Every structure is written in C-alpha cells, then in structure tokens.
Model the fold of this input.
Amino acid sequence: MDKFTTLTAVAAPMPLINIDTDMIIPKQFLKTIKRTGLGANVFHEMRFNEDGSENSDFVLNNDAYRKAEIIVAGDNFGCGSSREHAPWALLDYGIKCIISTSFADIFYNNSFKNGILPIVVNEDDHKKLLDDASRGANATLTIDLENQVIKGPDGGEIAFEIDPFKKKCLLEGLDDIGLSMQKIGNVDKFEDTMTSERPWV
Done:
C-alpha cells in the first residue's frame, strides 16, 4: 500500500447525501477479486447515460474535475452494503481522500485499509470546503496528514481528528498484511515452537 503523507490535488464537490456503495460501484461490476480495473465503472449510474455516453451533469465529467483526487462529499458517505470493492474502485479511479461530515463505519475502516484517507469535519468546515471545491480547476486543497490539517486555496486551514493508529498505518503505508509482516519474526518463532512441541499438529 502506498504511503499517504501530503496530498495537493483538485477537490470535486459531491454534496449528495447517502451515497451508498452500490452508487460507488454497482453490483454488476463485482465479478472480480482484483483491485484494478474497477475505476472505469466508479459512480457508473451517475457518470453515464443509458446509451453509455457521459452524463454532462455529473461533476467528475466536468473537465475541471476529471483528475480530481479529493471528493468533498455529503453526509453518510459509503453507506449500504459492506463491499470492499467500493474503496478499490475509488482508488483505482484516482481518489485518495474523501471529506464528509460522516461515513458508514465499514466503508470508513475499509478506506484506511486500502490507502484512502476519509476525513470527518463539522458542518461549518464542510460548507467552507464545498465552497472551495466549487471553484473548478482552482479547487485545489492540500491534505497534510502528519499535521492533521486541510489547507484551502486561499491559505486557510482546517484541523481534523484521526485515530492515531490509523494515521500511523497510512503514513507508513501499512495495510493488514503489512502490519502482519512487521511481526514476521514473532510468527516464525511461534511456528517453530509449535512444530517442536506439537509435531502432530
């Protein structure tokens, strides 16, 4: 997993509330266990019309936001089913940070495990960030994870809270496997002991 330290990128405004995991990656695209390739269908039903053409009203189809790496989303982002494909699809598309007033718990935790930073802010700060994100190509935010601040295009700063353990994992690029590999010496020692003391197992 890539380390997340500082990100400066265009932020796309997506104030719709209750964006669920089926809206993020519809069920018909869940036939793979690979983490790559899903980005092509992220937000499929909002990005595309029935004939497959782009929906010009959807924010990520706007030229100013096509390369957005940050989403300023509405309340309760990532609700619905617990599919891990949702953060896979967002990351594959290029989204590395989502800012909202609240997230569904499972999506929130899955995001950290896949290298995406979900940030919770209060309503007043959320309004400011949506205003910043509405500036099109000038909607650039800087996310400083180490210092836990969001820097706006006008130089203003918004502080955010984050669990220290989750922060450490993102800063060091550690997913569950990476965390386990840090303890590989202890694992090997345990396996050797088990083999010696319980050879029948």
In short: Helices lie at 21-24, 44-47, 85-93, 105-113, 123-133, 164-172, 176-181, 184-197. The beta strands are 6-14, 70-73, 97-100, 117-120, 140-144, 149-151, 157-159. Residues 21 and 83 are 7 Å apart (CA to CA).
